[in-house]
Amino acid sequence: MKLFSPERVFFEPTSLKYPLGQKLLEYFSARDIEIIKAPIQKVLQSIPGETENHKYAHAKKTLVITTKKALNLDICKPSADYEFSLVTNCPGNCEYCYLHTTQSFKPYLRAYVNIDDIFNSIKKYIDKNSGNVTTFEVASAGDPLAIEHITGSLAKTIEFFGSLNNGRLRVVTKFDNVDSLLDLKHNSHTRFRFSINSRYVIDTFEHNTANITERIEAASKIANAGYPLGFIVAPLMVYDGWKDQYKELFEALAKRLDLKNIKEPITFELIQHRFTSTAKNVILNRFPNTKLDMEESKRAIKWGMYGRYKYVYPKETSDEVKDYISQLINNNFPDSRIEYFT
């Protein structure tokens, strides 16, 4: 797919005190891209657009170069022990995205340039864990691969984790520009997962992301480069023909991967479609013609970690989805591991 290029780039003054900040300023100065030097509080005021939807569209093409101020890491269960961010938000435009709940008023992208500060924070969490292996998710609040061709931060992070005895990295992406990561010294300390789904879900709801063929091809490259490989199948949706399309998905995936040469078990994480009331309101505002099924009366309520309740499929439907998708995985990937269903 075509690599992301922003319409405008904001540089917070503090970002220019770091080598990566200066490097990015040189990078964008050589291109026909609007550059604005201003505090992050000025970003929303400077994004053009006469309506909320127009502003949102321009915000998704706005990149803010800044520093990560809060270096305390949040727990990230069930994916990892902790999460940290190289970037926040994503140039993709998935209608169902859970970031509509947490970042609905700040849909612009942020890239953090104080990488060494982030690494030092990670080391402290590892040291506190008494010699045990500690896992970290880097793509919970944004997709770093989407702008890796600009920042190079993910490559540096992979090699950082490759040098650690007791630290492991987990990455997930909907993009396919992995070529710059294939020859890194990762030492199998980074599990690279691709978000995959049926043709209907990707084509209907996942705008400005790699298509399923591109993601599977990128997954094959990552596996051949010796990375531990995984897939997040999310959000699992029930619709007319869903079983046939998910069957097609897993068969195509198994056919493309060279399973005999993949040493570590492939992992699968299964997440059913859910939404919050906040997200629904934002989605309907930004995507008034959405085909997402968000009828609360057809759903069950599930409480989240932070006191937010979510609407998920009723138990009977949820169990059917779990059993069917698990069967497809076990049939096509008998040596794989399903890490969780939620």
3D structure, described in words:
With 342 residues, the protein is an alpha/beta fold. It is 34% helix and 22% strand. The protein is built from 12 helices and 17 strands. It has helices at 19-29, 43-46, 52-59, 99-102, 115-127, 148-151, 153-162, 199-205, 212-224, 242-256, 277-286, 315-332, and strands spanning 8-11, 34-37, 62-66, 74-76, 80-83, 87-88, 93-94, 109-112, 134-137, 167-173, 190-196, 206-207, 229-236, 267-272, 300-303, 309-312, 337-341. An 8-stranded mixed sheet has the order 4-5-9-10-11-13-14-17. Strand 1 (8-11), helix 1 and strand 2 (34-37) form a beta-alpha-beta unit. It is globular and about 55 Å long.
**Second rung of CATH, namely the architecture:** Alpha-Beta Horseshoe
Structural class: alpha/beta
- CA radius of gyration: 20 Å
Given as residue ranges, the uncertain stretches (5+ residues, pLDDT < 50) are none
Quick tags:
single chain, 342 residues, alpha/beta, pyruvate-formate lyase- activating enzyme, eight-stranded mixed sheet, five-stranded mixed sheet, globular
What is the topology?
Elements: E1 8-11, H1 19-29, E2 34-37, H2 43-46, H3 52-59, E3 62-66, E4 74-76, E5 80-83, E6 87-88, E7 93-94, H4 99-102, E8 109-112, H5 115-127, E9 134-137, H6 148-151, H7 153-162, E10 167-173, E11 190-196, H8 199-205, E12 206-207, H9 212-224, E13 229-236, H10 242-256, E14 267-272, H11 277-286, E15 300-303, E16 309-312, H12 315-332, E17 337-341
Parallel strand pairs: 1-2, 1-3, 3-8, 5-9, 9-10, 10-11, 11-13, 13-14, 14-17
Antiparallel strand pairs: 4-5, 6-8, 7-12, 15-16
Helix pairs in contact: 10-12
